[in-house]
User: Which sequence fits this backbone?
């Protein structure tokens, strides 16, 4: 069975239908980049997979958990599917170490010393061992985003969702975050990224999904899809972002 | 015309003044706690998805914030007995003060909860924290930090406002002024001294609250 | 002696409410003028005067209005001024209002960003021109809603003058309550009158706030 299965999901905000029947499957270990204009529904789709948004129709199954079931165990789902946001969303009142430790203690029920050990390991992995006791507002945007990735990784998810995580960053800080992502990718993590970084999508992703007006417009191997777009819509989108 | 100011005759009433300070603080703390409890209920009603609950909360807040405490106090103390509810002066004072504070507390609390961004709640939930855990570990601290200054100044305001309840004979600091006045016939000196006592209390509490803020919210434990 | 609470009493209460309004209006004008002085002393670049203004604000905001009323009520005769409750009430409420107006207006002045001063200077405007044409119009707009908001407090606080014997709405209610032995309807009527005045002011403040923010 696939790790993620979306079957004809539909989502509307008021009168606006943002997802008009999305179906896709994601295999374990796959790295998928989701691209498209703003408003095309790509972030909404990601948020539906994590249960942050409720869908009106269709079925979503993640790692055997039916997200769309009325009594879905969303907390279990969210342990399996980590999510990193555009605006980092670190907890401002906790230092780096405690940001990472919070869910380890509350959700995975680790004791303080075990949680601290895991926290130190993941923070070291994203290259911020010297910032363990710094507070979010003392870090650059890139560093905050790396901590947010570490915080998610620490939960040992089977799938990670990244929602435009470099879009809020100054251009010179994007690189350090992408390098951390490449590191995560090289360890075999299943990843789904909504991104505007076409080079990253081309070089790191296995597969690209192009969304257009609430539908999946193209879906194929990353390089091929980006270098030889089949539809005029993707072609014009790529022209717009690359120039 | 020369008036001979005599403050020294008041010195022997220092114990009464200190007792008054103690009673005023007692009134203030109880009012603050009861008012916040009421305020929490009203604040939750005001953000409830149920229209009637929101309407009730709105009416409560508007009715109490747009009428004077003194009139509310008279309604509770002089008005309620005519429908069979007879209360002692101190009880009536506490009830009126708490109900009044509830309206302000509701607004402060609501502003606090609304100040915590939705994205922080999502971050908590997306890590697998339950709604309760997210509230307790993510929302609460940030909300309290936001509303702390408002709460601190509200406490000082309550302390000053409690003086009003002396008008129905509730026993607190301002009530002691009437007592001392009746013994010394030094009205001006007495009321000046009592008024200055409030100033001392205000400044002391402001310093105390600022200190607490620094220790709890500014100082950053490095571990 | 004892009689029913009648329509005539409601009329009497409404008439007494005029004194409430007159007192609030007097304190607004008196406190407003004094408040301008406080705000100016608070912002001019001369430390001792800043401290004076801060001390004034702390003294007024750090003591109960009821205490201030009694100090004036008993203190004015000692300096040879007339003893009537109106004078004490009007004077102490004006002083009370001055501290709050001063703070509100200082805040409004300072919330106009430094860049606006710089922008004015960059265009070659004099200090007075910058103040009069650039900064003040913005500051006044910002200050209107909180100023009206404070008027609600002021109207409510006029009720305290009942305790030094000034016959406004609350004192009038006490008098009628004593004559009719119907405290509940009397005080509820008073509350309704206060509510009508204060709620109108609150709504006005909200409306101004919305309108002035949209206009930005």
Assistant:
């Amino acid at each position: 069975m696939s790790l993620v299965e979306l079957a004809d999901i539909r989502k509307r905000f008021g009168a606006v239908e943002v997802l008009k029947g999305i179906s896709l499957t994601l295999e374990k270990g796959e790295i998928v980049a989701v691209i498209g204009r703003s408003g095309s529904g790509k972030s909404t789709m990601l948020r539906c997979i994590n249960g942050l948004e409720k869908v009106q129709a269709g079925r979503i199954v993640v790692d055997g958990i039916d997200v769309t079931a009325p009594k879905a165990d969303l907390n279990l789902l969210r342990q399996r599917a980590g999510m990193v946001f555009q605006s980092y969303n670190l907890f401002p009142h906790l230092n780096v170490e405690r940001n990472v430790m919070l869910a380890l203690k509350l959700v995975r029920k680790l004791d303080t010393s075990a949680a601290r050990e895991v926290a130190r390991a993941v923070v070291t992995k994203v290259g911020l061992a010297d910032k363990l006791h710094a507070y979010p507002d003392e870090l650059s945007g890139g560093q905050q985003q790396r901590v947010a990735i570490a915080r998610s990784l620490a939960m040992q998810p089977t799938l990670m969702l990244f929602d435009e995580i470099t879009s809020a960053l100054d251009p010179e800080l994007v690189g350090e975050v992408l390098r951390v992502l490449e590191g995560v990718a090289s360890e075999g993590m299943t990843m789904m990224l909504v991104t505007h970084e076409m080079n990253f999508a081309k070089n790191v992703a296995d597969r690209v999904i192009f969304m257009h007006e609430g539908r999946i417009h193209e879906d194929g191997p990353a390089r091929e899809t980006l270098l030889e777009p089949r539809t005029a819509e993707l072609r014009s989108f790529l022209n717009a972002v690359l120039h | 015309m020369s008036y001979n100011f005599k403050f020294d005759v008041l010195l022997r009433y220092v114990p009464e003044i200190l007792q008054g300070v103690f009673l005023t603080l007692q009134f203030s703390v109880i009012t603050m706690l009861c008012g916040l409890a009421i305020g929490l209920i009203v604040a939750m009603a005001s953000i409830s998805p149920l229209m009637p609950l929101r309407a009730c909360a709105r009416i409560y807040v508007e009715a109490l914030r747009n009428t004077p405490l003194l009139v509310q106090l008279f309604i509770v103390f002089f008005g309620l007995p005519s429908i069979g509810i007879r209360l002692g002066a101190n009880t009536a004072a506490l009830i009126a003060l708490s109900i009044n504070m509830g309206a302000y507390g509701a607004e402060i609390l609501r502003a606090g909860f609304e100040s915590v961004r939705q994205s922080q709640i999502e971050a908590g939930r997306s890590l697998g924290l339950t709604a309760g855990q997210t509230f307790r570990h993510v929302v609460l601290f940030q909300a309290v930090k936001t509303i702390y200054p408002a709460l601190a100044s509200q406490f000082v305001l309550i302390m000053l406002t409690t003086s009003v309840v002396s008008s129905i004979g509730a026993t607190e600091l301002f009530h002691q002024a009437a007592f001392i006045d009746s013994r010394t016939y030094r009205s001006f000196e007495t009321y000046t001294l009592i008024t200055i006592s409030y100033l001392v209390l205000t400044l002391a509490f402001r310093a105390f609250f600022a200190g607490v803020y620094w220790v709890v919210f500014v100082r950053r434990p490095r571990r | 002696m004892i009689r029913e609470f009648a329509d005539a009493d409601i009329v009497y209460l409404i008439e007494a409410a005029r004194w409430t309004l007159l007192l609030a209006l007097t304190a607004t004008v008196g406190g407003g003028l004094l408040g301008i002085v406080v705000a100016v002393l608070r912002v001019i670049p001369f430390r001792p005067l800043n401290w004076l203004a801060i001390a004034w604000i702390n003294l007024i905001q750090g003591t109960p209005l009821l205490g201030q009323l009694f100090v004036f009520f008993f203190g004015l005769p000692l300096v040879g001024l007339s003893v009537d409750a109106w004078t004490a009430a009007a004077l102490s409420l004006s002083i009370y209002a001055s501290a709050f107006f001063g703070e509100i207006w200082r805040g409004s002045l300072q919330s106009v960003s430094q860049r606006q001063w710089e922008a004015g200077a960059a265009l070659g405007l004099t200090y007075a021109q910058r103040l009069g044409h650039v900064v003040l119009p913005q500051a006044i707009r910002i200050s209107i809603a909180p100023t009206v908001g404070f008027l609600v407090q002021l109207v409510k606080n006029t009720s305290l003058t009942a305790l030094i014997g000034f016959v406004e709405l609350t004192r009038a209610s006490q008098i009628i309550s004593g004559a009719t032995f119907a405290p509940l309807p009397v005080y509820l009527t008073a509350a309704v009158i206060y509510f009508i005045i204060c709620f109108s002011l609150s709504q006005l403040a909200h409306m101004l706030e919305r309108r002035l923010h949209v206009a930005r």
